[in-house]
Amino acid sequence: MFARTNLIGRAVILAALVTLLPGTGWAQIEEIVVTTRRTEENLQDVPVSVAAFGADFIEKQGISTTEDVVQLIPGVQFDQAFSAADTRVSIRGINSERGRTSVAILLDGVDVSGENVTSGGGSSLLNTRLLDLERVEVVKGPQSALYGRNAFAGAINYITRKPSMNEFSVTTYGDKTTEYGIYDLRFGINGPIIEDKLAVSVNAGIYSSDGYYDNKNSLDPVARSGLGGGDSKGIRLVALWEPSDTLSVTANVSYNQNNSDPRAVAPVGTANTYYLQGAPLPAGTTPDYTFNGTMDYGQFMGTVPKVHENDIELSRSFRDNRPFEGSEGDTWLTYLKIEKDFGAVTGKSLTSYLYNESKLHEDVDFQTGFGTPITRNNVDTNYSVENDYLDQTETDYYSQEFTVESNDWDRGRWLIGGQGFWERTKNWDKSIGWFNDPNFDAAFPDFCVAQNALDLACSYRDSVRLGEPPKTIHRNTDSYSIYALLGYDLTTQITVTAEARYIYDKIEVKTNTSIDRVGQYILAVPIDFSFEALPVQDEQNSDTVNPRLAVDYRFTEDVMFYGSVAKGTKPAGFGTAQFAMPQNTRIGKETLWGYELGAKTQWFDNMLQANVALYFNDYDDRQVGVTVRDPVSGWASAGVVNAGSAETKGVEVDLTWRPIDPLTLSAAYSYTDAEFTNFDFTDIRSQSAGELRAKDQAICQSATGDCSGAEVAGVPENSATFLANYTAPLTGEIEWFVNSIAVYTDERALYDRVQTAYTDDLWVVDAQIGLQTDNWNVQFYVDNVFDDDTTRWGQGYQDFKNGMYGGSAGGEPRDETIMAFLPPPRVFGFRANWRFDK
After folding, report:
1. What is the mean pLDDT of residues 814-825?
2. H-assigned helices in 99-230
3. How far apart are CA 44 and CA 265, in angstroms?
4. Higher-confidence residue: 525 or 401?
5. Rounded to a whole number, what is the distance in angstroms from the first to the last CA of the chain?
6. How far apart are CA 91 and CA 75, in angstroms?
7. Which of 14, 103, 445, 625 to pair with 700, CA 20 to 30 A apart?
């Protein structure tokens, strides 16, 4: 593990190493062109920290998802929790626990990030497989001014290939592993229909995987199934029309279908155990939060161990008596781009429409058997561990953007623009609770009553009044913004760039019942306490101005220094995960100010590139999930408050070196110090009409429940990527190549707490060897060469099977465990692509 040292010291040492490297016998590094600032520029000339991958690298590495991209960039993380919809991307220690994702995901400039309804902070659209990529750009730091409100911490922009006006081509791509039934096949046709006027491209692909693991449930043969696999198919049609030298029209229509099996997940830790300074105490110990400070809460602490396939015990779906389906998603995306050159200026229009339909059918207790005994009505009973989670969502998203930008202004460039988007999301929660076991129903019929009744119930369907459908949530979002950029050359060496965007958001949420999942499943008293006509609804309006100012100084032709300050804002809205009364889940705006100093340098006639960036982020009003109390009924339910502040600071270094023509070496390193500066549960509970709890004291190791100083969950302090490529002639036009990529990730906290669990640090190494020409390449590859099985991510979760119960009506699981996700094993495979040009 890297030692913690001063940030400036790290930068100075690395800069010194660069100046000491030899400078003879090297070859130039190829230029990478990016459109980070909405115009084509050399990556080394952009005063922003950007990681970019070109088409050749994308094909050789088999990159087709956001997860593939992110794992190669230090300081950027992609984590998927229990389902394909529960995904999050973080950049520089800024992650998303609630609301929309903190990182904008764009496809050809169209924001496809999305926002889930029942899983805060994530989006199922982040898992969509991509076709025909030309380039990927990852922009770090707040980019709201140019990319909109979702670019709170940064943006990932996928750029696809344009149809060719003068060349006909056919492309094929194939990827097949030796095990696990994984294959990825793609096919494309591209060429002119009317020479120099109209061109079309069509790309299609299919993907399938049996998964790396099996649910080997020893108690329930029906539940046995493959885990972590899935399949997808997609097609993309693009037409490019250029009737004149000054007018260009691009039309795109694409469809993707993605199905994912349930994940391979297993519980870790011993329930009903208290800890003191990480050591378990004897069974039966009474909690004492005054002895020597505080006592740990009854949950797993420390480093999450490795888990095995035999530890997995998912149950069957008792809805239809078969294994759970996992997730399904269908996405249509269409956009129309129009660009018109008027001489002094160019006008652009981007019209887009996205439709997504998704379904989640998951085992959300992740265990089989019977749960902890609970006493109700003087009767001891074992509740069945049967969570049958069924959730369906439809999203319609329409966006319109107009820009006008300068052409060939001799002192810089400018642009102005306006954008509006309208999103309509509807969610149906048809889940069935863990006390809905048929045997239990027969023994205790008063616990589960017929549909339409107003008494105790066992599912949302039973609890809804007047025979309405299952719990339904409508979320409507209207957003309007205007923005501008002005880049001005003060001198031939100094350029100042100012950006700003004004955003107005209106978010409305409506639901047909005031019962949330906590009240339904845990409190076991699913009565509508709204005391007002259903459906209930609420609305939030907010506006903000997000500026960005950057200065770059061209010290020499090969050395540029830059500095920037930028603001990002997440709009006010609602925490709809475990949603109850809208008024209880209101959340205010989050604000992020990002500061960056950097240098981009080239040495020895561009044989060596060395870039460094120092950054500091001030993150205020962070949204925190809490248990709140309904002001009318007094019952507890899930809620969200703005109660946290954090700081993240760090240094990033990127080195690329070609010591000889066939060899390219790259190294990227990120140090991230992310911690809460204000995270006080006394304040949090007061905002939600609650009192400080013993658990708050325990997880914060503080008698006052102050978690300030806690690490931000999911953020490694140190991360690094090392790449080596050797490409040399073999015979004629054929070259041979060998690649290797090594990725290091430091330990990561699983909770936003002082007392927490951690995943261990790990190394993952991939390698490829193959042959190539200008028109084809074939390779043999190994992913995870050393078969590292370290747990890469997990999630704290209530232990429904073994945890102690307490709370209202004796139905609240007290203990938590860690649900650890099994990592991909070593995989061998073959990958090839071929291109025919005419």
Report:
1. 84
2. 144-147
3. 43
4. 401
5. 53
6. 6
7. 103
In this prediction the pTM is 0.87
Higher pLDDT, 333 or 574: 333
Is 2 part of any domain?
no
Find all residues with CB under 8 Å of 409, minimum gap 6, and list them: none
Lowest mean pLDDT among 181-190, 468-477, 600-609, 829-838: 468-477
In this structure, is residue 453 part of a structural domain? yes
Residue 450 lies inside a defined structural domain of this protein: yes
Q: What is the pLDDT of residue 88?
A: 80
Percent of the chain with pLDDT over 90: 47
The answer to whether 262 and 326 are in contact (CB under 8 A) is yes
Q: What is the pLDDT of residue 431?
A: 75
| Number of CB atoms found within 10 A of residue 49's CB | 25
CA atoms within 13 A on the CB side of 362: 24
Confidence of residue 441 (pLDDT cuts 50, 70, 90): very low
Is residue 511 included in any domain, yes or no? Answer: yes
Cα distance between residue 163 and residue 239, in whole Å: 7
Number of domains in the chain: 1
pLDDT (0 to 100) of residue 222: 82
Report DSSP state, residue 464: S
Q: Which two three-digit tokens encode residue 236? A: 């993309």
- Domain span including residue 219: 7-837
Pair of tokens at residue 699 = 């997880």
Least-confidence region, from 213-222, 227-236, 427-436, 688-697: 427-436
Task: Give the Cα separation of 50 and 43 in Å (integer).
Answer: 8
In CATH, what number is assigned to the domain containing residue 644? 2.40.170.20
What tokens appear for 11 in the block? Answer: 């930068």
φ and ψ of 428, to 5 deg: -115, 120
Stretch 210-228: mean pLDDT: 85
Instruction: Count the residues in the chain.
Output: 838
Residue 165 CB partners (closer than 8 Å, separation 6+): 192, 195, 196, 197, 199, 240, 242
pLDDT value, residue 375: 47
- The answer on pLDDT for 602 being more than 90 is yes
| Residue of 548, 564, 555 whose CA lies nearest to 494 | 555
**Residue 12: Cβ within 10 Å count:** 12
How many other C-beta atoms lie within 10 A of the C-beta of residue 732?
A: 7
Q: Nearest to residue 112, comparing CAs of 333, 290, 378?
A: 333
Q: What share of the chain is helix, strand, coil (3-state, %, to 5)?
A: 10, 50, 35
- Paired tokens of 197: 């006027």
Q: Which residues pair with 641 in a beta bridge?
A: 624
